[in-house]
C-alpha cells in the first residue's frame, strides 16, 4: 500500500488518513458490487465515494484508476466528530478489506472461464466488469437476508438501517448521519426484541430475526456459525 495521505473530499469535517490497495476495475467495480443487494450498509456519500460499516467500524472507499483508496474512522469524541483514524494498523485494515472483497480471487480468470462455458455470460459480462461476491459476516448476512423475504433492496436497506439504529452500538456521526454497528446477538434476544422489531416495520419477519438470533445464541454461537464459512 502507498503511504497514508489526506483526501480533501472525505465525507466529514474531520480529516482522515487514506491508504490504498492495487485493484484494477476488472477486479472490482464498487458501484456495481455495493449496490447489488449483497450488503445493505453502504451508500454513495459523495460522487464515487462509498461509506458503510464493516467489522464494527466506519469505512469510506473510493476507486481511482487501478487503486482502491480507503479510510477507517475511529469512534466519535466528545464533540461528536469521529477520530481521524480508527485504532487499526494499516496491515490489519488491508487484511480486513481484502478478505471482505475477496481480492485474492482473480476475477478476470473466472470471467474467462464462465464466458467460455456460457454464451449468455460471455455476451453480457463486458457490461458488468468487476462484480464479485462479498465475504460477509455470517451473523449479519443471515439476519439481513431474513429481511429480504418478499422485499426489495431500498426497503431492505431501510429496515437494516433501523435495526442498527435501534439495537446496534453507535460508532460515530458523519455529515449529521449517525452510524451504528450491526446489533449483537444478545441485543436481539431480549424479551421485547420481537415487539420492537414489529414497531420498526419488520412485520412477520420480526419473529424470525429475533428467533434466529436466539437459536444461534443457544446453539452454535456466533463463533460456531463463523466456522461454517
UniProtKB/TrEMBL annotation:
Q: Which terms in the GO cellular component ontology are assigned?
A: nucleus
What InterPro entries does this protein map onto? DNA_glycosylase, HhH-GPD_domain, OGG_N, Oxidative_DNA_repair_enzyme
Q: Which GO terms describe its molecular function?
A: 8-oxo-7,8-dihydroguanine DNA N-glycosylase activity; class I DNA-(apurinic or apyrimidinic site) endonuclease activity; damaged DNA binding
Question: What Gene3D superfamilies does the database record attribute to this sequence?
Answer: 3.30.310.40, Hypothetical protein, domain 2
Q: Does the keyword DNA damage apply?
A: yes
User: What superkingdom heads the lineage?
Assistant: Eukaryota
Q: Where is the HhH-GPD domain?
A: 144-217
UniProt-listed Enzyme Commission number(s): 4.2.99.18
Which of UniProt's keywords are assigned here? DNA damage, DNA repair, Glycosidase, Hydrolase, Lyase
Q: Which Pfam families match?
A: HhH-GPD (PF00730), OGG_N (PF07934)
Q: 8-oxoguanine DNA glycosylase N-terminal domain location, by residue?
A: 21-142
Q: Please write the reaction equations for the catalytic activity of this protein.
A: 2'-deoxyribonucleotide-(2'-deoxyribose 5'-phosphate)-2'-deoxyribonucleotide-DNA = a 3'-end 2'-deoxyribonucleotide-(2,3-dehydro-2,3-deoxyribose 5'-phosphate)-DNA + a 5'-end 5'-phospho-2'-deoxyribonucleoside-DNA + H(+)
Name the GO terms of the biological process aspect: base-excision repair, AP site formation; nucleotide-excision repair
Q: Which family does it belong to?
A: Belongs to the type-1 OGG1 family.
| Name of the protein this chain belongs to | DNA-(apurinic or apyrimidinic site) lyase
* Species assigned in the record: Xiphorhynchus elegans (elegant woodcreeper)
Question: Gene for this protein?
Answer: Ogg1
